[in-house]
Amino acid sequence: MAEPAAEKDRQRSATRRREREAGGARATRIKVSYNDAEHALVQAAADQENQALASWVGRIALEVAEETVVPTSVTAKAVVAELIEARKQVKRIGTNYNQIAKVLNSEGEVEDAQMAAVHRALVTAIQRLDQATLQLMRERTEKG
């Protein structure tokens, strides 16, 4: 027996739409034009978030205008990932320093090799943070 059309519609995964605003209906419309490559890129981003294209473009434009997100280029994403990883490393090193301080405060001894290893890790993490930060600053300057 064939399923009713309404049942088939419910089984499909619905594409999300933007939520309605408390300020009333959205009556103002704008037209955005893309070439084929740009359209494919924007459509892929909307699909990734399971949103209708117009809904995704409208939401992202509002978020940028309200400064709740900062636009980041695809190349900057790798730099941001590096900053995140460096931050994790610095946090781990901070934990090591706290452990060393605890031993020293209890009048214990810390081996020179332990101090040297923690120091090297700290210097490396700081250098990575510096490099990634400078790269982001260069990219922001080039855009401005």
**What is the percent of helical residues?**
55-70%
Structural category is mainly alpha
- Please work out how many helical segments DSSP would assign: 5
Low-confidence parts, pLDDT < 50 over ≥5 residues?
Answer: none
**Could you say which overall geometry the principal axes of the C-alpha atoms support?**
elongated
Number of domains: 2
Written as H for each helix and E for each strand, in order along the chain, the element string is: HHHHH
Largest sheet: number of strands, sense, barrel closure: none
Spatial extent as radius of gyration: 25 Å
Whole-number mean pLDDT: 79
Count of DSSP strands: 0
Task: Give a brief outline of the structure.
This protein is mostly helical. The protein contains five helices and no strands.
Top keywords for this entry?
144 residues; 67% helix; single chain; 5 helices; 2 domains; mainly alpha; elongated; 0% strand
3D architecture notes:
With 144 residues, the chain is mainly alpha-helical. The protein is 67% helix and 0% strand. It starts with a helix and ends with a helix. It is built from five helices and no strands. The chain has two domains: 27-71; 74-143. The protein has helices spanning 5-11, 36-48, 53-65, 74-105, 112-143. α2 crosses α3 and α4 runs antiparallel to α5.
Give the helix/strand layout.
Layout: H1 5-11, H2 36-48, H3 53-65, H4 74-105, H5 112-143
